[in-house]
Amino acid sequence: MQNSKVLVLATFLLGFFLSFGQNGTLTGKVIDGDFNDVLAFANIAAKNTNYGTASDFDGKYSIEMAPGTYTIVFTFVGYSTKEITDVVIKSGEVTNLEVTLTSAADALESVVIVVTKRQNSEKAVLDVQKNATVVLDGLSSESIKKAGSSSVASAVKAVPGVSVQDGKFVYVRGLGDRYTKTLLNGMEVPGLDPDRNALQLDIFPTGVIENLQVKKSATADLTSDFTGGIVDILTKDIPSSEEYSISLSLGYNPQMHFNDDYLTSGSSGTDFLGFDDGLRDSPIAIGSTIPLLQQDGALVRTLTQSFNPELAAMREKSFMDFGFSFAGGNKYKFESGNALGFTTSLAYKNETEFYDNFVDGQVFRKRADTSNNEPRIDRTQQGSIGTNNVLLNALLGVTYKTQFSKYRINLLHIQNGESNAALIFQQNAEQSSNQTKKDVLTYTERSLTNVLISGEHTNKDGSWNTEWKLAPTLSRVDDKDFRTTPFRIDGGVPTIEPSEAGDPTRLFRELEEINLASRLDFTKKHQLFKKSAKLRFGAGFTFKNRNFAVDQYSFILQDFQSSQFNGDANQILDPANIYDPATGSGVAVRSDFNITNNFDSQITIGSAYVSDEFQVTDRLKSIVGLRFEKFDLTYSGQNQQGQVSDNAKFIDKADVFPSLNLIYDINEARSFKLRGSYSRTTARPSFKEASDAEIFDPVSNFFFIGNRDIQPTYINNVDLRLEKYGAGIDFFAFSTFYKDFTDPIELSFIREAAGQFTPLNLGNATVLGAEIEVRKNLAFLTPSLKNFSTTLNVSVIDSKQQYSEDEEANRRDTLRDGEVLEDTRPLQGQSPYLVNAGLVYESENNLRVGAFFNVQGRTLQIVGSGDIPDVYTLPFNSLNLTANKTFGDKIKHSFGFKIENLLGDDVESEYEFFGAENKTFSFRSPETSFSLSYGIQF
Amino acid sequence: MKKLFISMLAIAALVITSCGEDDPIAAPGPDLSDNLISGLITENKTLTNDRVWDLQGRVIVTSGAVLTIEPGTIIKGLPGQGANASVLVIARGGQIQANGTASNPIVFTSIADNIALGQTRGTNLTENDRGLWGGVIVLGNAPCSFRGDVAAAQIEGIPASDTNGLYGGSVAADNSGVLNYVSIRHGGTNIGEGNEINGLTLGGVGNGTTISNIEVVANVDDGVEFFGGTVNASNLFVWACGDDSIDIDQAYSGTITNVGVVLGDISDHAFEIDGPEGSATGSFTINNATIFGNTNTPNGEYADYRSRAQGATNNVYATGFKASSDVELDNNGVSQNYLDGNLTFTNWVINLPTGGVAAANEVFVEKVGCAQNCDDDDDSNDILENFITTFTADAAAWASAGTSGGADLSAFSWTYSNAAAGLGF
């Protein structure tokens, strides 16, 4: 049923058609190596021909040429001339050529650099990195394709010092998502998780990406709210020519797919499109009062009947992963020389996961007797879970370019629906002594709609550049009808016992965030100390509003024996079992709405900055900047003591953030560089953290208490990096970094109240790290290996977090005999090391084979509380293999094959016990999966 | 006396009002419509028995304040779950003076109960109407044994941001006031964190407090739960609660004298007794209890002694239980206490259920917990603890078959249960 709909859609997309001309096109971009910026008005000519043009103010150019082999010459006043040989133009095809020009060391003498086309294109990304003023790593859409990554989340792992948690959240240098910022086209967008500051990256398909940059050091033009890094996702702009592509993919995991034991629940007619058609809507308006059945039994009966009666997880054969995407773009040139370009893409992904034996949320405790190291079991919890994840996204971008201006409108919509069905078995030994079985059905619908309107203007000689951007975003997360039905099963016949295992509950949560971001930037190229310099200044304003609401219902049994259900969750709301005033017995709904779960908060950030980038000496470049930010957070909500906040100002900060970046060329060829940077940055609490909200999460059983007194964290960052650029793509870098955190925020437990958590500004923390990055073609070993190249990056990080008073007292009191309390502990979420390694084979006939390995060290996941010890995430050794082969000339066909988790490693975290074997907190085994893809480009 | 005075005031007010309607200075009579109790009670306050009071949300008597409730007063809790649950909390340092009489008990019930002023019971609700409001929570400064040996803990259901929810301390003789002839009915709503509230929750209550003649009927969770503390209690009666009738945790070290328990159709244990959670220890004593079982409830055990429980259970009469019901030592932890003589039993008389139980001592059973491989997904490889006692055999020394014994049931003749269920006490 669902598959036939997909087929119809695919056929529709194939309906697009195409045409091509006789000539070929040479197109590309000219980069100003001095500023790592585009170079406007550079001259481009094919040697010994009449073909020629100039780059536009975006640095872009395009020439229609007859098929043949050319040498292309790039010139600009005061810059070294570059000649690229062996540029082949084929009929009806587009040849891309991006070059970087740097200013001539001695302007009187003309310098000509000659390289081949092949060398040039491979170096393009590295050039950006080489010339960057900040510590930066980039991934082009090309290299993302190479690694076979289907989403930004998996692609970004290839960047040094980057790891991805839960397959979604980026950690840069092992620092948690709190310290990582995600930007879309340089603008802030809201996250899709109410508990996180960062945006999840698995929702971005690689097809819409022009490139991806991870910036690890700050400059004044960047938001100061980041510490580990900024991930900037740049979506496709104006295409170089008419181009369409369609791709299809299939993924198969022997454990998860075509498995008869797969768990699911009834789906709505539009689930396959990533949203619910209303099936899972709450039948009752949020916050409505439901009378006691003793007060109005007839109404309670009607309301109870209005709920979807499906509560049980159902077994059904699972399908495999599949997806397709379409991307297209074209450019129209007007006689005036103005150009209009559009780019569009539509991508669809449908993934199914099934874990037959997963373990999650187990609880083990230390014993009161400190001489006994043996863990005490509180709760074991394991079961099976089936997940279906649908991701649909559409992008439409229109760009209009005149000689001196460019206007762009970009629309992006991402739609994601995730449904889970789980059967969980729990054994309790502390609070209660019982065994329970839970049917858990959940559905989360996420959407993000982003509009980017931007303009860029330059004057005639390109010395002044003005850029403005407006980016409104609406994002929504709807947790729809989370259904949990607990049966106690240790007494023989399964029973519903609220005081032992809880009530059957339904939960509805809505998060809506509006984000209006704007900025205005001016750039002026000027002379300082008789050398070229660039002054940047600008201002920005961001407004964010988040509204969070929770509604919850339970089902109670009035004068009714739950043993009649025989453990079948679907029996609970069976029409025959619903409360009837006539008999006075049955199942009735109860509202568990609580106003303290809800809040409405606003953030405004006004910013202004100025920076200058200039050569101190021929070899030493510096960027000095100062940024000012005014941050305000206001909160509206009510706490359980009845204290009402109405637009109460919780945070009001005006801060100055200085930054300094220095780049020293150790050798004349500029291939050996030393970079140093200092910056002050901040990490601000999330909406939920800086609140008075008191939120019980029935999924985790944790009670979250907001902290109205919480303050932002301030961080001093120092970076040192040595870079060596070799021939071709060869590259070596060594970096060290040091960060000290004042008042870092961490979710902390409350000693007197197990299971309750609140964010606190803890004692100071420091992070000291080192990174090594190597990219090397293996031809240096033996020339026959010239098609092999390898990448390796390793980060080693030592973090030290001081304890809060409560934590220290607690740790001291629960120390085992002979155990010593360390002075500090690692920062939560900070992994001690990260390794990324890759080996790639690329043949001349377009075959690419790669092996990629990724692992991160044992990481403190949950800080222990009371007699519950710390939980650490164990390393996951991820080894993926990819192979791609492209055929065809004008119409390109490509086939891809990928094996993920070849080592079959498990995802696992555990409680750390002193003097005893560690105990599992969570465990799942994704096993090895295989995928095939086919793409056609025309 | 006081009541008479108020009545006279009311008459005087009427007289004065009728004397001159234009007279702006009318002596204030009691405004009977002012019957809502909500929020914090920070100063001394009296709930008079001239009206039915409505309890709305979390009402807390804070440190230094005394809430006095007159005999015969009726308090009806409004519905609401979690943070909205209607609960009366006596915080540490606060006091309740609820001194009822057998003929004029103080009644806590639901707004849905049609009980009217001057009555001791309504007619529209039964023992199966549970969870219609919260319950009564008394918190004190007496010693408790907490996990991680913290000095105080937060009672379930009140977020830690509200320190009025703390209980426990070092004052064994702490005085939280008086609860005497108090009947708590139809409560036990969800108070938050998936926990239902008990009829009467006593957290760290000291032995300067008087707890006597208490009845809890039709509560979703436990009837009376003792979280640590030293308070002594007498004449407790629990009927048809959803979970355990008398629950002891965190090294409660007082004495409970004369207990009556009647299980309902969904009740669990009559006694559920846990031990210390931290290194502090303390032993309970239960003297004289009569427990009536129920053959309809899927669970319905006599008693469960768990996790390091320590104390004495003396002089119990049990009748009407299922053949499968037991008195159990839950795991090696509590069994070891039994072996060490820290958990004792004397004089249990069992009215033997028909079928399966040949002798009274068979009711007493040792159970074992899982010792190894418990945290994986395969139950078949679990290695269980060893049995370490001869509990069942030993029980012959204190258990006998019979049809009488236990509590002095006449002490419960005043209860609603006695009248509603025709128990004939």
Write up what this structure looks like.
The complex is a heterodimer of chains A (938) and B (425). By secondary structure, chain A is mainly beta. In chain A, 6% of the residues lie in helices and 54% in strands. In chain A, the strands form eight sheets. Chain A has a 22-stranded antiparallel barrel. In chain A, strands 1, 2, 5, 8 and 9 form a five-stranded mixed sheet that branches. In chain A, strands 4-3-6-7-10 form a five-stranded mixed sheet. With 425 residues, chain B is mainly β. Chain B has one domain. Chain B has a 24-stranded parallel sheet that branches. A two-stranded antiparallel ribbon of chain B has the order 10-11. Chain B has a two-stranded antiparallel ribbon with strand order 13-14. The chains are: A mainly beta (938), B mainly beta (425). Chains A and B meet through β24, α6, β29 and β40 of A and β10 and β14 of B.
